[in-house]
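TASK: fixed-backbone design
INPUT:
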């Protein structure tokens, strides 16, 4: 390789990686204390795949699950998991009304939305999720929250999943989001 090509590679290669990384959408989480309980707000790029939208139109129900882990980050040893919490939503299309029904399976609240874009917007910003009582935590320690989100299709038997192995999957797993519990 000539000297000029080497310089071009060293200049354009980092620029290429910076451009591809800087425009990718990432999720953001934050926590706060209210009435002795830590709550979290999460925002991330929730997007249904075309196969998932088609599955909803065909009568399948999708499950959207948020798994939270609270970790005691130790500088000198192995990190310790303090606790976990799951928040689950059910997404289905009412064939009679043509509206999407989102049900919070933890507390039973229901939201009726008109379009798939409204569903994506609603589930892109989840607010006021109770995580942990502040009496359990030591204020002097460093705690981290890790959230993993996934979409799975409900009501599909295992043999049907095995048959559709070569087709595009209806399940999606999002990139994990991490943030400090105490700021």
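OUTPUT:
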């Amino acid at each position: 390789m000539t000297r000029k090509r080497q310089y071009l590679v060293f200049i354009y290669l980092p620029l290429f990686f910076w451009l591809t990384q800087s425009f990718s959408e990432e999720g953001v989480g934050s926590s706060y204390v209210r009435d002795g309980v830590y709550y979290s707000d999460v925002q991330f790029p929730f997007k249904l795949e075309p196969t998932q939208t088609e599955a909803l139109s065909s009568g399948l129900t999708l499950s959207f699950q948020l798994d939270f882990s609270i970790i005691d980050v130790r500088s000198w040893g192995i990190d310790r998991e303090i606790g976990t919490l799951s928040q689950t939503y059910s997404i289905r299309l009412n064939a009679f009304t043509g509206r999407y029904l989102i049900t919070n399976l933890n507390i039973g609240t229901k939201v009726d939305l008109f379009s798939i874009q409204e569903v994506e917007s609603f589930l892109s910003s989840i607010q006021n999720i109770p995580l942990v009582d502040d009496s359990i935590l030591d204020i002097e320690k460093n705690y981290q929250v890790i959230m993993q989100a996934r979409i799975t299709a409900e009501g599909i038997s295992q043999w049907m999943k095995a048959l559709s192995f070569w087709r595009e999957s209806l399940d999606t797993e999002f990139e994990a989001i991490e943030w400090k519990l105490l700021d």
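COMMENT: The helical segments are 3-22, 50-57, 116-124, 158-163.
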